[in-house]
Amino acid sequence: MLKKSLKILLGFTIFLMISIIYLLSDFNAIYKNEEFLFITKELKNAQKEELKSFIFTYNTIYGKIKEPGCPCQNTANNIRTDTRNTSLLKRALYWLKIKKEFSHDECVKFVLIHYDFGFDNIGIKDASKFYFKKDLKQLNEKEIITLVVMLRNSALYNPIRNKKRLDAKVLLFEEILHSK
């Protein structure tokens, strides 16, 4: 009886492992989705962007506090699919595939380049020009932190509408950034 149970358990485990390998492989048809292919292309394009100071600030701050969510998951959430057929499993597979193929920093870059900072400012470059009237390379530490704070919720931490709330969060993030 024990040998039969062990064989069944081993067989099920092998089947489960093969299924997972297939689901995350390039042979799986869900990765041929036009939106998924677009997102992976954009992730590859994001690698070319020079955003070291933003990524350093982001990683340092969110390394010290609990990160609001994995940037790869935020990237996967940008994949639009037919809502009738979208399942949690499909979203999870997109996220796992992106996490497997791209680094944390590449996903952060994607989010920085494609995030809606409000007032029709898509991406960190537009936000920098709109809110600070500067190019990315000209931003000081506080302005970089401001844009990192806005990644949490650009409506809640908007420099025009919620200046006091934003300033308080920027001050907190500055303390976190410089704490040991």
Rg over C-alpha atoms, rounded to the nearest angstrom: 20 Å
Question: Mind describing the biggest β-sheet?
Answer: none
Order of helices and strands: HHHHHHHHH
- Number of contiguous helices: 9
**Oligomeric state, counting identical vs distinct chains:** single chain
Poorly predicted regions: none
Q: Ends: how far apart?
A: 58 Å
Roughly what is the average pLDDT, rounded to an integer? 88
Number of strands: 0
Quick one: overall form?
A: elongated
Q: Helix coverage percent of residues?
A: 55-70%
Query: Which structural category fits the helices and strands?
Result: mainly alpha
Percent strand equals under 5%
Descriptive overview:
- The chain has 180 residues and is an all-alpha fold.
- Helices cover 63% and strands 0% of the residues.
- The chain contains nine helices and no strands.
- α2 crosses α6 and α8 crosses α9.
- The protein starts with a helix and ends with a helix.
Question: Which terms summarize this structure?
Answer:
180 residues, mainly alpha
In short:
By secondary structure, the protein is mostly helical. About 65% of the residues lie in helices and about 0% in strands.
How are the SSEs placed, and which strands pair?
Elements: H1 2-23, H2 34-46, H3 52-64, H4 71-76, H5 88-101, H6 104-114, H7 124-132, H8 141-150, H9 163-178
Helix pairs in contact: 2-6, 8-9
